[in-house]
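re: ur question from earlier - yeah i can do the single chain one, its not a big deal. heres the input i used so u can compare w yours
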Amino acid sequence: MQLISDSLLLAATIGAAVYCYVLAARLRRFTTLESGMGGAIAVLSAQVDDMTRALEKAQGVAGASEKRLEELTNRADVLAKRLELMVASLHDLPAPPPGPAPRPPEDDEDQRRLRFIRRRSPRGSAEAVE
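and the output i got, formated as tokens:
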């Protein structure tokens, strides 16, 4: 009976030793920085840091854009009120006299534009040769 219990205890000890050896090998491969999960975790950690910095930068830009947009909106509201006042004051002006509307002045550039007239020479035609 003593011999059976000792052999079972020895078998359990050898099994635990083999289990610990296999577990240690797996853990070593798991934590290897170059090819294992440790490397993947390190890469993911660096990517999270980069994304955090990019997010903070984007939030800063969005905040500045929000302030600028709010300023422009307030300015547009003020200008819209002024424009409404100007349009309302146009109703107080007298009506224009009846007749043709005056033509707007032509640009100086249109007046300065040179015009070329191309004439056909009689030498190039077949009738001029005869």
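The chain has four helices and no strands. not sure if urs matches, ping me
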